[in-house]
Structures are given as structure tokens and as C-alpha cells.
Amino acid sequence: MSDLTFTYDWYERMLDRLADSGLETRQFDDSVTGGSLLLRHDVDWSPRKAVRLARLERRAGFTATFFFMASSPFYNARDRYCREAIEQIRDLGHEIGLHFSTHQYWDERPPADALESRVAEERRALEDVASANVSVVSFHNPPDWVLRESFSEFTSTYEPRFFDRIEYRADSNQRWRDEHPFETGVPDLLQVLTHPVLWGDFDGSGVDRIREERDFVFERLRSFIAETYHPWPDADGVPEVE
Q1: Which of 44, 95, 100, 138 could hold 65 in an S-S bridge, CB 3.0 to 4.6 Å?
Q2: Residue 237: predicted pLDDT
Q3: Is the pLDDT assigned to residue 180 strictly greater than 80?
Q4: 8-204 has which CATH code?
């Protein structure tokens, strides 16, 4: 697994190595013992790329938890595009979780009941889309005040039990380029976090990947405008609204 690239081919080889190590995937609400792998994805940008990883993992015999946002500026969970991605991932046998952004609501720590109330609202919204129970939450760009905290109404991926005994590897900001995730071997208890937007058919930097997804989102928006306002644009460059 040298020559690390952020490509689907490399990701597939990583899955093969994890499978060869004998690890078996578990979900966050399962009993996590020796030989367990918690495979997790924070879908903060790209539902379409999440589907690609879901298919690779299914072929490798693994199940993962895909955390989708219910309050994202990049995609709408109720939009057909995202809804179908969630359905495909669920039908492949993977779990759907909530990727919750505290930054959408607060600049500093809120009362505990306010946090749990907002999380409950977003969980219900995502459950409606996924037609599945959503009991596990991954915080987006987690502030210090959610780290190593446990909550009564949901499971958080940042609870102490998922870090005290379990090794953690994440591809955040493509740091694997400088820090190979399994340079010294595959741990017996392991949590792996990846962000689908960072991966592709060909290698590329994190900045390049974000630009690609931005362009994809803009193209979808342009298509929506063209379909909604016809003809587009009018002589003044402004759509007519009836």
C-alpha cells in the first residue's frame, strides 16, 4: 500500500488489507470487542461519492455508517438527488447516521437541553428521508465541548469509549499523504473515518476535490434554473416569474 493516492483503486486496496487482517465491521451501537472495525464516513459535501465508497465496501464484505447532514449548505437531504443516494447506501446494508453541525445554531456552548432538542429535530428529519432509525451522531468540525461527551438520547462517535481502547485513523484534509494510516500495521481495534469528497477516479489534492464538487453543485443548480424558468435568460438576463 505504498504510493498512497486518494483514488478509489487505493481505497479498495485499503479495504482488502483490512479484510486480510481479519477485522469485522461493527456499528456504533454494537458491542465492540477485539477484531472490530468501526468504518465511518462524514458526508459533508458529496452524497454521490458516498455511494461509490458504499459499493466498494459492500464488495469487500464490510458495512459502514454514513453520516449525512440535515442542515447543509451543500445539499438538501430531501432533494431527490440526495434522497436516492441515501436509499442506495441503505439498501447496500449500510447504516445511516446524522452529521450534525453545531455551527449552524450556536457560536458557543448552548444549554444541554437545547443541543439535544436540535439533534432530535434533525434526526427525525433524516429518519423521514432514510426510512430508517437514526440513532448515531457525528459532529461536524466538533467543538471542544462535544468531544468525549456522552448524551442520553443518542450515541455520539466522539464518546470516550470509541477512543480510549480503539485506535483512530482519519483522512481529514488528506493528512494520510504525510501520515500513512497503517504504516506500523493494522490495529486489533480500529475506527476509520473518511470523507467521500476527498476521493476520486484519479488522484487530486483536497482543494481540487472541493472545487470539483463545487462545480458539480453549481451545474446541478444551473440545470434546475433552466428547467424551472424557461426560456432562460430573458433579454434583460432576469427570469420571468408568473
Answers
A1: 95
A2: 54
A3: yes
A4: 3.20.20
